[in-house]
């Protein structure tokens, strides 16, 4: 019979979302574009290089990181923070639904009063931004 789990010498397994957040955190602290090995070292080095590359590739597919070719490898940079990554995930879920209006309506009915107030404020700020909206298109520019 095995002993308690706390005696298990294997490191705790991290979930994909946790690894993505840690990789993004390391990239945000980087002095500029960095190699995957740099990211691996910042995460403690207990991850396989291939695991770090998989996470970076997934983040790239989600547009949360950018990469530029450097010789035979890539240099990576954060394009999004954790909030931006969560927004990308939400957008991807919404894009996969046939009835966007029903999904959004259902989501809004589950908000706490504080979150509802915040959404209203954000929508009001967006509506009041002079750079937003069709009224500021070129066809309505008096100087055009």
Automatic annotation (TrEMBL):
Per its UniProt record, what Pfam families does this chain match?
Penicillinase_R
* Gene3D superfamilies assigned: Winged helix-like DNA-binding domain superfamily/Winged helix DNA-binding domain
Q: Could you list the residue ranges forming a coiled coil in this record?
A: none
Q: Which UniProt keywords apply?
A: DNA-binding, Transcription, Transcription regulation
Record carries keyword Transcription:
yes
Q: Does the keyword DNA-binding apply?
A: yes
Instruction: Tell me the protein family, please.
Output: Belongs to the BlaI transcriptional regulatory family.
* Identification of the protein by name: BlaI/MecI/CopY family transcriptional regulator
